[in-house]
Amino acid sequence: MGKFNWPVRVYYEDTDAGGVVFYANYLKFFERARTEMLRSQGFEQDQLINEQKVIFVVRSLQVDYLKPARFNEQILVSAEVTQAKKTSFLFAQEIVRGDDLLCQGEVRIACLDAQSMRPKAIPAAILEQLS
């Protein structure tokens, strides 16, 4: 599929007392970009839970914070699948402001059975679309 980009405006609620984006909120931006990537391909997570009985969860992540984002800035959050396995995806994600790389990370997403919470094969349509 390639790299998916999602524009974000930094709101006051995203910042800390120093006026910069609170570190945990970068993870929220990553999460939303992955959700919007799925949505752009026709996959709604609530439907996946109800119809396919699967959920996607963060299994592991590694993040590098390089430069701060600040209130009211327009940033771009990207998500790209770099590895697809039977029950997980590895995403490369970045947050940029213009030419400045602010944050980058790798996020492993596992597919689980929505009831048992045990690993489950990623639905074929999703695997095919995102690989």
TrEMBL record:
One of its GO terms (molecular function) is fatty acyl-CoA hydrolase activity. Pfam families: 4HBT (PF03061). Residues 18-103 form the Thioesterase domain. InterPro entries: 4-hydroxybenzoyl-CoA_TE, HotDog_dom_sf, Thioestr_dom, Tol-Pal_acyl-CoA_thioesterase, YbgC/YbaW. Keywords: Hydrolase. Belongs to the 4-hydroxybenzoyl-CoA thioesterase family. NCBIfam families: thio_ybgC (TIGR02799), YbgC/FadM family acyl-CoA thioesterase (TIGR00051). This is Tol-pal system-associated acyl-CoA thioesterase. It comes from Methylomarinum roseum.
